Amino acid sequence: MAQGLIPEKPGEIIEDIGANILDELIGLGMLKESGIFERGLRVSELYRESCLLQVEEKDFIDKAVNSPIHLFIRDDGKHLPSNFKSLLIRSLFAEATVRDSSDNSYRVEALSQVYLETVCGLQFLSVLVLDSSIDYLPDEMGNLVHLQYLGLYLRNIKKLPCALGNLLKLQTLDLRRTYKLRELPIEILNNKQLRHLLMTQPYYFRYFHDGIRVPKGFATLVNLQSFTGVYAAGSGFASELSTLTQLRELGLHCVSENHADEISAAIMKMDNLISLYLRAEQTRLHSSKQGGKKSVTILPPLLPEFESFSPPPHLQELRLYGGLIEIPNWLLSMENLIKLDLHKSDLLENPSSVLQFLPKLKNLTLWDAFKAKVIGKEFCEA
Q1: Per-residue pLDDT averaged across 56-63, rounded?
Q2: How far apart are CA 336 and CA 351, in angstroms?
Q3: What's the CA gap between 150 and 126, in Å, rounded?
Q4: Which of 18, 288, 292, 331 is the most buried (most CB within 10 A)?
Q5: Nearest residue to 223 (alpha-carbon basis) of 187, 190, 194, 186
Q6: Which residue ranges does UniProt annotate as crossing the membrane (predicted)?
Q7: In this structure, are 82 and 3 located in the same domain?
Q8: DSSP β-bridge partners for residue 252
Q9: Domain co-membership, 98 together with 20
Q10: Do 232 and 345 lie in a common domain?
């Protein structure tokens, strides 16, 4: 989308057009799906070899000097060509990875300051992905005014530069691997073209992440289609969320009974919502005495019941992280549901009882959803 490769059609959402194109390429065998928890795509081996052969035979590097270039660099820019800064680089995927000879794996290191300064001088960039262990970004990042896609896979960064607010053409900000980031700068509200604000990974198990806090006034980002990894317990959050009725993907962390009614009311206004992720507020502790000794058991966080909740009609993906005790009644009405993930649900009943009410369900993930050592045949029959 950031490269302008998707043709716009009147009355259609550009993300839907792009998704249809990808499905066609998968059907033709040119792309293959990968990944367990997140959908990934890769070029099939046959077409990959063909592309590499074309590059070698046609002196691609020499002929690309005056053409838009898309680069993937893994060595921290240690072997850049002398004319690097003069190239029309439109996309850059920069990793700082080093191969470990002992087990042939890669470890992520920090990008050098010199390399970062060089990257910030690439004025034609529309796509930039940084994968590194650095803990800062220079203010000069705000000079990349043509950026439309920015992916920051920066595991140690705790604060983003206010200069990101200068990126007025930015459509996608991907922060799903910035595990230590806890809040966005208020300047992010300047990015009125934002369509996808993706924050924190739902399936990162190293430690609990309560989501990223967004500044008050986020309701002015009226073009948002995706809004994930968001801390939902802030004052006035639900009120602003209720105005983003155009959302198609929503992921909320720290959902609790304290604001359950407001959150559910906001979600019910989102008629276009396709994907929903809800994560409970915090871990619960259960104390008990046995034989004169006190013991503490860690229970999964408890999700609100959302008693009056009615799911948006087009919802296809639902991920729930937290204790449910029993399957909520509203789940049975989701006739268009294709993907269901239940994590730490602490269910007292086998969830197979609801499958018969979900005729389109194709993908089911149960991760500590209920206590069972063996899944019986009734589960498969459902």
Answers
A1: 59
A2: 18
A3: 8
A4: 331
A5: 194
A6: none
A7: no
A8: 230, 278
A9: no
A10: yes
